[in-house]
Amino acid sequence: MNIAVAKGDGIGPEIMEAVLTIFREARVDLSYTFVDMGKWVFDKGYSNGMTPEAQQTIESLGILFKGPMETPKGKGVKSVNVTARKTWNTYANKRVFQTLHGVDTVFSKAGIPIDVTVVRENIEDTYGGIEHMLTHDVALSRRFITRPGSMQVVRYAFEMARKKNARRITCGHKANIMKITDGLFLECFYEVAKDYPDLKADDVIVDDLCMKLVTRPDLFDVVVLTNLQGDIVSDLCAGLVGGLGFAPSANIGDHICIFEAVHGTAPDITGKNIANPTALLLSGLTMLRHLGLMESAAIIENALLYTLEQGIRTGDFGDRNKLALNTTEFAQAIINNFGKIPEHGSKPILPNKPITQTIFKLEKNPLIISKEMEDEAIVGVDMFIESAEQPNDVAEKCLKHTLDLFKLVTISNRGTQVWPKGSIFTNVVNQYRCRFESVGEIPLSQVDIIELYKRLSADFKICSTELLNMWGGKKAYSLAQGQ
Ligand code: NAI
């Protein structure tokens, strides 16, 4: 099997070298095609951080093993890490956090074992990076949560939980506040849960989840979350098991998978050969198992666990009274321990069952779409306008333009209603949302909305609009705070 490897930036080449040396010494049956991705590729003028040859190689091989990559700051370019995950639709980001003996944490000292797998949605959410300044004071980020995207990641999480013999799968969310977006994710979670009656499925609001994870991490097994919340919760979990040096990740898609550590390029320790390669090695082991190389993965993992149990360490963890090894020495210590069995968590040596490498040749972009809702109707529009006037003055101008078709229902500022009722204590910024609904709930056409837009634009700069839809007799939009 041949896989694509990108060494990455910062500590990337150092830890990748360490891991590939371990693989070579363990006679892992893989060959590598090195590809050009990362900061220096941006600097050469490739705006997505990878060369066309790299993209072609990864798309034809289907597996990318990568080191961390730096996102140049302030140049307007997007993170190559995020671009890679999104471009190749690796919709599930799986991060396993386990107690490692020899890596002391408050929990290991208290005898509380941790084995939490976080599955983070990997494509959507605020990571769309769709952002605009609406006025000089107001920035907007669009947060997309989709039904097909949520179904893909949730289905993966349930399948993985079943394979792991998990006792519990938990959805972390903030659907009490983001009722439509997180509400949709949660709805998908319980829809998929129906197909897995053997698993205990429940949900916890994300702030409560964080509190519970730091007090009783042993109560959790598999946790699935939307992208940003998953990002934060998984770093929290990394802290529970000893830090970023021990946090591996797998980005799983239907065609392409990417294996990488959770941590970044660690610019503060780059070039010193002192970085901890464990997270990248654990990511590599997940990759070997994904490819069916069970025996190689078990031999290396047992050697790693044995090494950690011996108190062998790099400078970022372990007993400060013991000498810290550098990256190369640490890798060599693992190699020296091939064949040793750790006291805790040893892995059975199962035979290799290499998968057949599939070369996917797609004719068109896969369209993921669910069944359309019946009874769809436009019943209004939210017009986001720029104005530094008082709410009553904004309302007065809006009311001039409602025609017979529309009624002005509410005006809000930063999501809080300021008209027709509100509080004089609500601070306002120079951007209002004016909600117009059709008189008598008559369905509207887009032409009606355009007519209103034209009339309103005589008095205001309209920064953005959103249609108000009714689907299946239900409002497909949220109310303003206080409406
Ligand atoms: P970071 O993860 O690179 O570093 C945070 C802290 O952890 C630093 O003190 C660093 O020395 C330490 N650290 C990280 N990995 C370590 C290791 N293997 N061994 C020992 N210590 C380690 O996060 P930071 O500083 O926020 O980001 C630096 C750069 O990395 C940024 O350009 C960021 O965009 C990029 N990044 C890339 C990621 C990826 O490629 N998947 C993920 C996260 C950040």
Summarize, please.
The protein has 14 helices and 18 strands.
The overall pLDDT, averaged over residues, is 94
Coarse morphology: elongated
The strand count comes to 18
Q: What does the radius of gyration come to? A: 26 Å
- Quick one: CATH superfamily of the largest domain? Isopropylmalate Dehydrogenase
Q: What is the rounded distance between the termini?
A: 60 Å
Bound molecules: 1,4-dihydronicotinamide adenine dinucleotide
Query: Helix segment count?
Result: 14
CATH class of the largest domain: Alpha Beta
Q: In percent terms, what proportion of residues is strand?
A: 15-25%
| Main sheet: strand order | 2-1-3-12-11-4-5-10-8-9
Instruction: Give the low-confidence spans.
Output: none
Major pleated sheet: 10 strands, mixed
- The appropriate CATH architecture of the largest domain is 3-Layer(aba) Sandwich
Say what the CATH topology of the largest domain is.
Isopropylmalate Dehydrogenase
Estimate the helix proportion, in percent. 25-40%
What is the domain tally? 3
Helix-strand category: alpha/beta
Give the SSE map.
Elements: E1 2-6, H1 12-25, E2 31-34, H2 39-43, H3 52-61, E3 63-66, H4 80-87, E4 92-98, H5 106-109, E5 115-121, E6 125-133, E7 139-144, H6 147-163, E8 168-173, H7 181-193, E9 200-205, H8 206-215, E10 222-225, H9 227-240, E11 248-252, E12 257-261, H10 278-290, H11 294-309, H12 327-336, E13 376-386, H13 391-399, E14 406-413, E15 416-419, E16 431-438, H14 446-456, E17 461-471, E18 474-475
Parallel strand pairs: 1-2, 1-3, 3-12, 5-10, 8-9, 8-10
Antiparallel strand pairs: 4-5, 4-11, 6-7, 11-12, 13-16, 13-17, 14-15, 14-16, 17-18
Helix pairs in contact: 1-12, 6-7, 8-9, 10-11, 11-12
The structure holds 1,4-dihydronicotinamide adenine dinucleotide (NAI).
